[in-house]
Amino acid sequence: MAMDMFLDQLHGMAQYYPVVLKGVGVTLALSFIGIAAGTVAGFVLGIGRASSSRALSFLVGAYTDIFRGTPVLVQVFVVFFVLPEAGIELDSFTAGAIALSNLAACFISEIVAAGIRAVPAGQLEAAASSGLSRFQQLRLVVLPQATRMIVPSLVGQYVLLVKDSSVVSAIGLLDLTRSGWVIVQSVPNGLLVFSAVGLGYFLICYPLLYWSRRLEKT
Amino acid sequence: MLSNLNFRVIAETLPDFWGGLVFTLSISLAAFAGALAIGVVACAMSLQSSRVVRAPAVAYVDVVRATPLLAQLYFLYFGLPNFGVLMPEIMIGIVALSINSGAYVSEIIRSGIHSIPRGQMEASASSGMSYWQQMRLIILPQALRPMVSPLIGQAIVLVKDSSLLSLISVLELTRVGQTLANDRFMPVEGLASTAACYLLIYYGLKLAAAAWVRLAQRPGRC
After folding, report:
1. pTM recorded for the entire structure
2. ipTM score here?
3. Which of B65, B73, B76, B78 to mutate to test the interface with A (most CBs of A within 10 A)?
């Protein structure tokens, strides 16, 4: 009896596969945009944060702290509900993508800054005395070494971002989490439905986690 | 946008936000206590040599770390009634937060213990101590110190994560802000006040972490 019901529910869930596929697509797209844009912006902010100019470093630190200290959900709400007050109307996907990219940039900025500070001062002095310009020192000497050190933390941050993308479901965007929420309204088995949702995230995140752990060991 | 903030409304709703702030802090405190308990047990299990004991702890940490809190929250919220378990939303939220943070706490404790050189364990073993004596008298007192900063970091994450409880209609800080935003059509005032409250907690915990680092660096302490 219980088995029949379970099979029924499994069958009911299977009929929703187009919704799930769309949800997976949105989750992957948002994560990818957030990772790509967040990494680029994060490096720019991080270089500013590690800069010898105290004012610039403080300014970047103050900006990133605002987003590191507030919940993602609140940030997504702000982009989606507050920006329209300033005349900027965004659809939920764009709002989610902006909020997530900005959040990723703020966290990555601190990682990058820590990496830059960890490059021994002698490297910079040597680079300067070989006649490299400030920009060349950064591009050819500092960043390559800093990047190698921070790759494990970066990958760890990417995992957090994929998971954080689930909060866009709160502004009605049909991502993987929201697809579970939709299905559970007609297939009344939350354990089954959200196990499937969890499995979806696990398949995306676990390889990244595994990779970051491997990187940390070497 | 910020120039025409309605400060009268902000002042009027201050008591609501104070209530939300206290509620968020209480939820976080309860969940952090739960996470510490779960983390200690999971870590103790994951350090055992027996596979049967270790495997569930490792699986727990991996599954939690590879799935979003929101999915875990919905899993319990929509799933527990299937077992006939009916809990108030706030309890479900605290349980979900504890389980989620517990995995990270377990990893923090583990890396604290691993930061102690192996020789310490070998030396205490050769002075005839049992495994528990080694842990209790030699390893843990030294390992606690490097754990404090990351644990405060996890507390910060936990406070921010507790905002997701608003999605299962727990009236914490985010929900208070959302209510003000929706009912009175004041998204700017509602969300700005919410963000300000979270920043207050964030800076408080950050200051605590910095104070700890200074304290721990003073010679002849702990």
Report:
1. 0.92
2. 0.92
3. B78
